[in-house]
Design a protein that fits this description.
Layout: H1 7-23, H2 40-56, H3 74-86, H4 94-107, H5 110-121, E1 127-130, E2 146-150, E3 153-160, E4 171-177, E5 188-194, E6 200-206, E7 212-225, E8 229-230, H6 236-239, H7 251-270, H8 277-310, H9 317-341, H10 359-366, H11 377-388
Parallel strand pairs: 1-4
Antiparallel strand pairs: 2-3, 3-7, 4-5, 5-8, 6-7
Helix pairs in contact: 1-3, 3-7, 4-5, 7-8, 7-9, 8-9, 9-10, 9-11
């Protein structure tokens, strides 16, 4: 593994740092993700940041340049992600960049590409993903939302759940069953749905931490133009698996864990004597040191993944290792923070008594789902066991 930048990588890293230094809004510095939606100043700063990144051409780092992307190599994407994470700059683009764009580039019609890709890279249109259903999560292919062809439209009926950002999204890309008699993987199609279409009802799902991130949607005879199907009818399962060559190291998550540990240490050093943190630190000191070491290990795992990609490989079980380690580390850091806070950790973030604006308490509650979302720890351990260790399937 080579830890040093090549001359070309070093030059690109300098370019990214210069851009961040000149364009990153000061209003976003030190702002955690759960604070952003509720503050008009933060929302306006985020809009300006998305615009600045878009003008630089970096909204879609892994897309080919002919489609409005930056055409970065995986190592350039890694450098870009690492520098953004070090500056604590929030990501832009969302699922439109990471998921829909690659699908449209590979399978979309020229009309679909012309209509949607520029508005994704400009940040003009926000997308959400309509995949999971109440009875179809890990077994997504069992989904039951129907899309029945009626003339020039598909008529969609059903329900989606755990949809991030649906309450703010302009469009949704969803999987629906277009042939109920086909084997479950073969009767699914992908459709592009305007969220302003009649018959769509969006209901909030408030998390344990009090955040409105997720939603559930109900579709009652929603008409979607047939031209909005992506790829072939009944082949949506395979269309949905399309990806471009982007880095999968999760370096931003690893650096974020390190930042959180550093912030907890800073908080302890600056806390008033009456807070009682110094007394509890005597018991938690070694635990906090373990978290600092583990955050560095997470970063080294990310370096390993990007080194695989740099050599032309595709991380497989290694990506599952990174996901599990990072998700469980986030839970451990939050737990250590709560041990340090003691009873004051139960104070809600909107209280003037809340320490670190309630970040530790919020992380403690929100991290519960981290070992479920984006692939459960159990599924990832099966991948590690069978593909990494060569153990037989049970």
């Amino acid at each position: 593994m080579e830890f040093r930048d090549s001359p070309e990588e070093a030059a690109f890293r300098s370019q990214v740092r210069s851009f961040i230094s000149s364009k990153f809004p000061s209003a976003l510095k030190g702002v955690s993700a759960f604070e952003q939606p509720d503050d008009p100043e933060i929302a306006e700063a985020m809009k300006g940041w998305r615009t600045a990144v878009g003008k630089q051409g970096w909204t879609a780092p892994h897309w080919p340049k002919e489609y409005g992307g930056a055409g970065m190599s995986v190592i350039e994407q890694f450098v870009y992600s690492e520098e953004m994470a070090m500056a604590r700059a929030p990501q832009t683009g969302g699922s439109g960049v990471q998921m829909l764009g690659p699908v449209l580039i590979r399978y979309g019609t020229e009309e679909q590409q012309r209509e949607h890709l520029p508005r994704i890279t400009s940040g003009e249109v926000q997308w959400c993903q309509g995949y999971s259903e109440p009875g179809s999560g890990s077994d997504l292919a069992s989904l039951q939302t129907r899309a029945i062809r009626d003339g020039d439209d598909y008529v969609v009926n059903g329900q989606k759940i755990w949809t991030s950002g649906a309450h703010r999204a302009d469009w949704m890309f969803l999987l629906a069953r277009t042939d109920p008699n086909a084997p479950k993987h073969r009767g699914i199609s992908m459709l592009l749905m305007d969220m302003k279409s009649p018959g769509i009802s969006v209901q909030p799902l408030i998390t344990l931490a009090g955040d409105h991130v997720f939603n559930q949607e109900f579709f009652d005879n929603v008409r979607v133009p047939a031209k909005n199907i992506v790829g072939e009818e009944n082949r949506g399962w395979y269309v949905g698996a399309a990806l471009l060559d982007f880095e999968r190291s999760n370096i931003a998550g690893a650096i974020g864990h390190g930042h959180f540990v550093d912030d907890i240490v800073t908080m302890v050093k600056s806390a008033p004597a009456g807070a009682g943190l110094a007394h509890r630190l005597k018991r938690v000191r070694n635990e906090l040191a373990d978290r600092a070491v583990e955050a560095q290990i997470a970063r080294l795992i990310s370096y390993r993944l990007i080194s695989i990609q740099k050599r032309g490989g595709v991380p497989n079980y290694e990506a599952s290792m990174s996901k599990n380690y990072g998700a469980e580390l986030g839970q451990r850091i939050a737990s250590t923070g709560m041990h340090l806070l003691g009873m004051i950790g139960a104070v809600h973030h909107d209280s003037p008594m809340a320490i670190m604006k309630g970040r530790i308490t919020h992380a403690y509650m929100s991290s519960v789902a981290s070992t479920i979302a984006a692939g459960t720890s159990e599924v990832n351990r099966n991948v590690i066991a069978t593909r990494g260790l060569g153990l037989p399937r049970s």
